[in-house]
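User: Please predict the structure of the protein below. I'd like the answer in structure-token form so I can feed it into my own downstream comparison script.

Assistant: Understood. Taking the following sequence of 259 residues as input:
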Amino acid sequence: MKTLIVHAHPEPKSLNGSLKDLAVSTLEAAGHEVRVSDLYAMGWKAVADASDYGPDASSPLRVARDSGRAFDSGTLTPDVRAEQEKLLWADTVIFQFPLWWYSMPAILKGWVDRVFTYHFAYGVGEHSATKYGERYGEGTLAGRRAMLSVTVGGPEAHYAARGINGPIDDLLFPIHHGVLFYPGIEVLPPFVLHGTDRMNGEEYAEAAKAWEQRLLTLESTEPIPFRRQNFGDYEIPSLHLKEGLEPANRSGFAIHVGG
């Protein structure tokens, strides 16, 4: 297995740093190849702008179109091209980050904004009466799997179905479904640690053991069964889920998960 770990925390000695290091050592000891993109250590530029697209940047700037032209012509900035090559190399991607303000840190969102360019991660495939592009289960990154490893400061009860912060699955849905599944990546259930602001040594030891177990079962873990766009569950071109397909008592984001 070839695994890319995209790590987003500014402190190397943080819990996230420890989980990243443990992932590297565990996977390598099991015979897997591992590469790491440590975004803070790399000094990753978090904003997409005209400098990413070289001579293919237009004025006024049109990010989607210009990023696609730069990708097609090979003029994307070298740091972006390097990350795209890592994604194409990997068959599994782990994103290691803390939940900040209900989402990923800005530097990781900037990685997505810059690396997932038009024609690389989206904007591919035919658009017809029966198909609306290759996305949501299809696309250029199909055949790969990804998992979020997320640390959360608050207690698990705050992120339960009736918790004030909202269900953790709903908070992660935009990343799972909108960032990863959109370009075709199969998404594994996340590894989430709650109450990390108050974690002691004994609790870390238990968390580390659970993390190792998840890492060693990546290849056998079933992905979240998101519904694929072009395989009959959605009306085209409205892309509404067909009536009657949602399980009883399920609404919102959850209707896009099959079963």
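That's the full token string. Helices lie at 15-29, 39-42, 63-73, 78-89, 106-115, 168-181, 201-216, 229-233.
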